[in-house]
């Protein structure tokens, strides 16, 4: 029996999928630049959130000095950067400015074409709400970013809250996964107008959850500078288990706030991720061998980069490459989980 398609004649699923892949690439770039911003301690250099006028950087010496004066009023300057020159301030301002500018650009690249596709009735039925939800999720991620910055704009802290940083990054990665998943659904419709959206299988949920824990702890490592607690692998400062940095910590405090414990969890939970992703890659190999290769390549590269980053003392370029590969690992995993959902 033939299945009737519900695809409107004006729908352009392949065009929408290609647009979403562009958005996904921009989100990956945003994640990497955000990582560099954290590693260079640049995140608190812009102390105000101006959605419109903030797109224009300081253009005169007086404007630069005014921005610098605002920065001098927070704890990071007082405790870490007292005596910094204006040239030094411009260097850290650059990364935070680029990070925010790219966020604005992603919003425009998502919102304006979405409006155009909606007006032209080019969105397949059932996908409009999903695209709007992804746009809203991107807006929430931006709000988390500002709340993260606000957490460090005081005289006590010298950096942003690592928990707000984790919320900011995880929302970005969740959005990235949703964009990739939706693009893959749209590609399936382009090939077969009667195709149904992929579903999340039990194993697929488990694989994403296990990876999600690792990504979350990666964010905590970045927020706590926990990558600097040791330059050894597999031992940590001569011991397998490093113990807590401060005696008397509660269990929850230790696993979320202690740099050594957070680092320990991140480096060894990686092997749970490897085990699950090996199984995922085996399951999707028959459906699409390219996805299996992508998953294996991504987690293998990510593990090696993680070890190299720690042993090299957390150089910025290597840590940023590690974060980039983490985002690509998420994309490869979403691809594999999507294939499982289509086979089911």
Q: Secondary-structure blueprint of this entry?
A:
Layout: H1 13-39, H2 61-71, H3 75-79, H4 86-119, H5 128-150, H6 162-191, H7 202-224, H8 251-257, H9 259-284, H10 289-311, H11 316-343
C-alpha termini separation: 20 Å
The number of helical elements comes to 11
In terms of structural class, how would the helical and strand content be classed? mainly alpha
Q: How many strands appear in the DSSP assignment?
A: 0
| Mean pLDDT across all amino acids | 93
Spans of 5+ residues with little confidence (pLDDT < 50)? 1-5
Q: Give the ordered list of helices and strands.
A: HHHHHHHHHHH
How is the biggest beta sheet arranged?
none
Task: Report the portion of residues in β strands.
Answer: under 5%
Radius of gyration: 22 Å
Helicity range of the residues? 55-70%
Large-scale geometry: flat
């Amino acid at each position: 029996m033939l299945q009737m398609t519900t695809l409107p004649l004006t729908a352009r699923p392949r065009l929408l999928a290609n647009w979403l892949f562009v958005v996904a690439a921009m989100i990956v770039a945003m994640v990497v630049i955000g990582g560099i911003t954290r590693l260079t301690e640049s995140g608190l250099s812009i102390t105000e959130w101006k959605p419109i006028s903030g797109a224009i950087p300081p253009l005169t010496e007086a404007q630069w000095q005014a921005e610098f004066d605002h920065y001098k009023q927070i704890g990071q300057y007082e405790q870490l950067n007292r005596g910094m020159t204006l040239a030094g301030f411009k260097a850290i301002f650059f990364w935070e400015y680029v990070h925010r500018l790219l966020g604005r650009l992603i919003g425009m690249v998502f919102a304006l074409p979405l409006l155009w596709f909606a007006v032209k009735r080019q969105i397949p039925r059932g996908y409009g709400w999903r695209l709007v939800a992804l746009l809203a999720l991107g807006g929430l991620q931006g709000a988390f970013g500002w709340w993260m910055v606000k957490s460090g704009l005081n005289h006590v802290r010298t950096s942003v809250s690592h928990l707000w940083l984790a919320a900011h990054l995880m929302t970005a990665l969740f959005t990235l996964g949703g964009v990739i998943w939706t693009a893959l659904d749209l590609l399936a419709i382009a090939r077969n107008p009667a195709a149904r959206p992929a579903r999340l299988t039990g194993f697929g949920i488990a694989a994403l959850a296990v990876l999600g824990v690792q990504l979350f702890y990666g964010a905590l490592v970045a927020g706590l500078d926990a990558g600097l607690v040791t330059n050894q692998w597999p031992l940590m400062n001569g011991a397998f288990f490093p113990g807590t940095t401060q005696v008397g910590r509660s269990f929850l405090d230790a696993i979320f706030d202690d740099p050594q414990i957070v680092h320990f969890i991140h480096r060894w939970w990686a092997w749970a991720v490897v085990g699950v992703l090996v199984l995922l890659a085996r399951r999707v190999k028959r459906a699409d061998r390219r996805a299996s290769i992508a998953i294996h390549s991504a987690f293998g590269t990510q593990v090696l980069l993680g070890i190299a980053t720690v042993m090299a003392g957390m150089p910025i370029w290597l840590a940023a490459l590690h974060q980039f590969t983490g985002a690509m690992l998420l994309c490869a995993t979403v691809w594999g989980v999507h294939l499982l959902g289509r086979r089911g």
